[in-house]
Amino acid sequence: MKENLKREIITTSDGSTTIHFPELDEHYHSIHGAINEAKHVFIKSGFDHILASREFPELNILEIGFGTGLNAFITYLEALKIQQKIHYVGVEAYPVPLEEVKLLNYVDQLSALDYQTAFDEMHESSWEDQNAVSSSFLLTKRKQFFTDIKDENCFDLIYFDAFGARVQPELWSIDIFKKMYEALMNNGVLVTYSAKGSVRRAMQEVGFVVERLPGPPGKREMLRATKD
Fold first, then answer.
1. Out of 12, 18, 192, 228, which could bridge 160 as a Cys pair, Cβ 3.0 to 4.6 Å?
2. CB count, 10 Å around CB of 221?
3. pTM as predicted
4. Residue 23: inside a domain, yes or no?
5. pLDDT for 61-74, tens place per residue?
C-alpha cells in the first residue's frame, strides 16, 4: 500500500467511522459497518469461538493489520467483561497517524467513554515494546511487513485483517498463510473477513482446516481456519 495515497474519514452504515482510499476505492473496514464487521468476524467467530473450546490462563492474539486499533479495542472491552487475560500483538507496516485516530468515533459508538484512556494508550504507546493497557491486557505493536513475520508456535488466535486481495493480492498468498500456520500453536485459529476461493485454497495448501461461515452485514461468507 503506497504511503502517499489520499485518505479520508467516512462514516459506515452502523454509524462508526473508517478510513477510505478514494484512488483505490479501498477501506480499512466494511462500509456496511466497521464495528459490526469487527464484532462478527473477529469477536464472535474468533475470540468467542476459541474461548468456548477451552480455558486460557492468557490468550495470545496476533492481529495482521493493527490499523485503527478497532479490533484491539473491542477485544479489550470483551476481555474485561469476562476477566480474560490477553497478550495482544498487532503488526502494522504503516501506522495510522495520531491526528487521524483522533477523528475516529469508536469510543463513542461503543458507549465506552470510561475507557477512552485505554484507546488512547493503544495508539500513543511505543512500538516494539510490551505495554500494559491494563493489568490484564498487554499490547505489543510491531512496525513490520507481514513478509517479515517469523513467529513460531506463539499464538492461540490470529485476526487476519489485511487490505483486500483486490488491491494487495500478495498479502493473501500461500507464503503468508504458511507464516500464519507456523505462528499458531496447535489447535490455534485464524479468522478473516475474506471468503475468496483462492484464499481458502491457499489456507488449505499450508495445512489449515478451513470453514466457511456466515459473513458480517454486506458479505455472504467469511473464513475460519484451524491448525489441526
1. 192
2. 15
3. 0.96
4. no
5. 999 999 999 999 99
